[in-house]
């Protein structure tokens, strides 16, 4: 293998730049040429591909977002789009591709793998919902962003004796809500993988009230529903007035934490090692502190599970 490429796809995640940097530097260290594909699979289809050198990835390890830009690309879900992408890679003499992204990005890498093009997937999403790894690039940074927000909201919740509902990202996954809920001492955490009724939420709040608590924090993953709807239901059914804070895309930005930078650097280097060993169709992860790689097609048949012991713990600690 002489020439490889790297792309970032789907929702950006802090640490993607550190991963791109690691791929580029590790590849050049081993004498490979590296190309960057801009705007994810959409840039791949359109041939938005440029050579990267050591300097192209200087001064980016601490930056959020992705210097390669990202996109969600519907055309790449079609066979025609996938073939166009492979044509572009071949036109540029590229023999292996590193894809950094979440579930949708992995699906694209699977399609390329099935068509015989060597691909390595690196888990990059704030959602922490990729099978085969305990942590995804960006999760730790997003978690810390949410925890800071909860701490700040708690100050005003305490001062005004109010209940706040904080809506966090996670369309299908509850890890951001769970981890941030535990770290921020939330009274209630609602995640898409578990169903809590309105009565459950109300009863928990009432337990707190009975022991003299005058403020509460509810952390709600967006996959459960909208915070405004929960606020309306609590008002209509129980007469409870709340305040709502939807954190939104602030969770996707910002300088990556040290943990995310190291994780991304290790993942990026591992991807290059796999390609050098002639192993395509793999994805990288960290399990129990060890770097691992899996067959990307097989791993996507599994489902990433949220950290359910934290769900139990959050209930036990917020009585
Ligand atoms: O997958 C990452 C994520 O941030 C989800 O948590 C969220 O639901 C989604 O992306 C938002 O996507 P977009 O930025 O395309 O609206």
Write up what this structure looks like.
Helix 1 (about 15-30) runs parallel beside helix 9 (about 260-275), helix 2 crosses helix 3 (about 80-90) and helix 6 (about 175-185) runs parallel beside helix 11 (about 310-315). The strands form 2 sheets. Strands 3-2-1-4-5-10-11 form a 7-stranded mixed beta sheet, with helices on both faces. A 4-stranded parallel beta sheet has the order 7-8-6-9, sandwiched between helices. It is of the alpha/beta class and about 325 residues long. It contains 11 helices and 11 strands. It is elongated and about 70 Å long. The protein has helices at about 15-30, 40-45, 80-90, 105-115, 140-160, 175-185, 200-210, 225-240, 260-275, 295-300, 310-315, and strands at about 5-10, 35, 50, 95-100, 120-125, 165-170, 190, 215-220, 240-245, 280-285, 290-295. The longest helix has 22 residues, at about 140-160. It folds into 2 domains: about 5-140 and about 255-300, Rossmann fold, CATH 3.40.50; about 140-250, Phosphofructokinase domain (Rossmann fold, 3-Layer(aba) Sandwich). 6-O-phosphono-beta-D-fructofuranose binds near residues 127, 169 and 222. The site of 6-O-phosphono-beta-D-fructofuranose has 11 residues, from loops.
CATH architectural label of the largest domain: 3-Layer(aba) Sandwich
Q: Could you say how many structural domains there are in total?
A: 2
Q: What small molecules accompany the polymer chains?
A: 6-O-phosphono-beta-D-fructofuranose
CATH top level of the largest domain is Alpha Beta
Q: Regions with pLDDT < 50 over 5+ consecutive residues?
A: none
Query: How much strand content do the residues show?
Result: 15-25%
Order of helices and strands: EHEHEHEHEHEHEHEHEHEEHH
Helical segment tally? 11
CATH topology type of the largest domain = Rossmann fold
Average pLDDT level: 97
> How helix-rich are the residues, as a percent range?
40-55%
Q: Strands across the major sheet, in which order?
A: 3-2-1-4-5-10-11
Instruction: Please tell me what the overall shape is.
Output: elongated
Instruction: Please outline the major beta sheet.
Output: 7 strands, mixed
Structural class: alpha/beta
Radius of gyration: 21 Å
* Terminal CA distance: 58 Å
Number of strands: 11
């Amino acid at each position: 293998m002489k020439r490889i490429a790297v792309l970032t796809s789907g929702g950006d995640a802090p640490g993607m730049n550190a991963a791109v940097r690691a791929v580029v530097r590790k590849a050049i260290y081993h004498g490979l040429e590296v190309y960057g594909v801009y705007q994810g699979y959409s840039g791949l289809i359109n041939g938005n591909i440029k050579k990267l050198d050591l300097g192209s990835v200087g001064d980016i390890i601490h930056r959020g977002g992705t210097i390669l830009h990202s996109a969600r690309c519907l055309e790449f879900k079609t066979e025609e789009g996938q073939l166009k992408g492979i044509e572009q890679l071949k036109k540029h003499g590229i023999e292996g591709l590193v894809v950094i992204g979440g579930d949708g990005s992995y699906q694209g890498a699977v399609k390329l793998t099935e068509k015989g093009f060597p691909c390595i997937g690196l888990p990059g999403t704030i959602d922490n919902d990729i099978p085969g790894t305990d942590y995804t690039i960006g999760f730790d940074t997003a978690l810390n962003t949410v925890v800071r927000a909860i701490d700040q909201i708690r100050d005003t919740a305490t001062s005004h004796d109010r209940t706040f509902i904080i809506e966090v990202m996670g369309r299908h996954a509850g890890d951001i809500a769970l981890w941030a809920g535990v770290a921020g001492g939330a009274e209630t955490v609602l995640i898409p993988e578990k169903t809590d009724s309105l009565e459950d939420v109300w009863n928990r709040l009432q337990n707190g009230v009975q022991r003299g608590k005058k403020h509460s924090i509810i952390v709600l993953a967006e996959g459960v529903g909208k915070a405004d709807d929960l606020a309306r239901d609590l008002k209509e059914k129980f007469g409870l007035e709340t305040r709502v804070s939807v954190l939104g895309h602030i969770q996707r930005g910002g300088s990556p934490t040290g943990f995310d930078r190291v994780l991304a650097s290790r993942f990026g280097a591992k991807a290059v090692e796999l390609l050098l060993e002639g192993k395509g169709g793999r994805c990288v992860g960290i399990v129990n502190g060890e770097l691992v790689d899996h067959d990307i097609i097989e791993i996507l048949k599994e489902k990433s599970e949220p950290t359910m012991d934290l769900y139990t713990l959050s209930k036990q600690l917020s009585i």
